[in-house]
Amino acid sequence: MDDLERFYQHLEQTLQHTGFIRQAHPGQVMSLLRRLFTRACLEEQELNILHGMLTSIEKQDKNLVK
């Protein structure tokens, strides 16, 4: 699996967990987000920043639950 596909999976998982997208209907939002990020032609460093943002959201979410 390539880096971009890993990012898409991480993004979808995080957005489902936060309630931004519903698990029952993730396709529509994810399809649009995939198009957006594909047009951006993300470089490795940019993907790393986005992964870091998602990880930060996940950590903050866990802190809010406690």
Describe this structure as you would to a colleague.
The protein has 66 residues and is mainly α. Helix content is 77%, strand content 0%. The model has no long low-confidence stretch (mean pLDDT 87). The relative contact order is 0.15.
List the helices and strands and how they pair.
Blueprint: H1 3-17, H2 27-40, H3 44-65
Helix pairs in contact: 1-3
Which characteristics define this entry?
mainly alpha; 66 residues
Please, how many helices? 3
Rg from Cα: 12 Å
The H/E string reads HHH
Total strands: the figure is: 0
Rounded mean pLDDT is: 87
Oligomer: single chain
Q: Give me the secondary-structure category.
A: mainly alpha
The major beta sheet can be summarized as: none
Into which percent range does the helicity of residues fall?
Answer: over 70%
Alpha carbon gap, first and last residue: 34 Å
| Unreliably modeled segments | none
Proportion of β residues?
under 5%
- Please tell me what the overall shape is: flat
